[in-house]
């Protein structure tokens, strides 16, 4: 029997490496599915340079997009935004949400018990499906699905994304 060699593109079990960002004043919770390869490498949410999350959220708040991890954390907290992902660990091929399987979810009660979250938003359809499947019963709260800021969602221009994401205000 030949050993299977896992290439970077092969499905492999990954554990979420990034701590959630929130504080007691956070009112908005934005959830993604699972960090991309680039985000896992950079050690922070939405780390792929083509992901439009930082440009879109900055535009919504009329701010300059933050660049460093520290600037991003300060930006989120200043605007009362908590950010985390739904998945604690899963099997995933590269950064492909469609390849996600064998999901273990994060415990959202960590944030919901400590912050004043008034609304939960999810970044993209996969995160919305995961939320409804694994989290809605646990939290007892509906989430609002926002269009994905991923570069794979090329049908949405940055302008259209900013308009849609303005609902977080």
Outline of this structure?
The protein has 169 residues and is of the alpha/beta class. It has helices spanning 37-42, 53-60, 69-78, 109-112, 125-139, 158-165, and strands at residues 12-15, 28-32, 81-85, 87-92, 101-105, 119-123, 143-146. The protein has a single domain (15-168), classed as Uracil-DNA Glycosylase, subunit E, CATH 3.40.470.
Q: Please identify, by name, the CATH architecture.
A: 3-Layer(aba) Sandwich
Radius of gyration: 16 Å
Largest sheet: 4 strands, parallel
- Spatial strand arrangement across the major sheet: 3-2-6-7
Helix content: 25-40%
Question: Number of DSSP helices?
Answer: 6
The number of strands is: 7
> How far is the first residue's CA from the last residue's CA?
57 Å
The oligomeric status of these chains comes to single chain
Overview of this protein structure:
With about 170 residues, the protein is an alpha/beta fold. The protein has one domain: Uracil-DNA Glycosylase, subunit E (3-Layer(aba) Sandwich), CATH 3.40.470. The chain contains six helices and seven strands. The strands form two sheets. Strands 3-2-6-7 form a four-stranded parallel β-sheet. Helix 2 packs across helix 6. The radius of gyration is 16 Å and the shape is globular. Mean pLDDT is about 95; it is low at about 1-5.
């Amino acid at each position: 029997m030949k050993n299977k060699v896992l290439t970077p593109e092969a499905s492999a079990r990954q554990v979420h490496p990034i701590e959630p960002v929130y504080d007691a004043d956070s009112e908005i919770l934005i959830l993604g599915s699972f960090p991309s390869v680039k985000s896992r490498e950079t050690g922070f949410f939405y780390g792929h340079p083509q992901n439009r999350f930082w440009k879109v959220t900055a535009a919504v708040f009329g701010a300059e997009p933050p660049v460093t991890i520290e600037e991003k954390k300060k930006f989120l907290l200043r605007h009362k935004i908590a950010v985390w992902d739904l998945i604690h660990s899963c099997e995933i091929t590269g950064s492909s949400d469609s390849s996600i399987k064998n999901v273990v979810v994060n415990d959202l009660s960590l944030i919901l018990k400590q912050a004043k979250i008034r609304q939960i938003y999810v970044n993209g359809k996969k995160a919305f499906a995961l939320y409804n499947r694994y989290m809605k019963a646990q939290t007892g709260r509906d989430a609002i699905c926002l269009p994905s800021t991923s570069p794979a969602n090329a049908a949405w221009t940055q302008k259209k994304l900013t308009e849609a994401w303005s609902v977080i205000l």
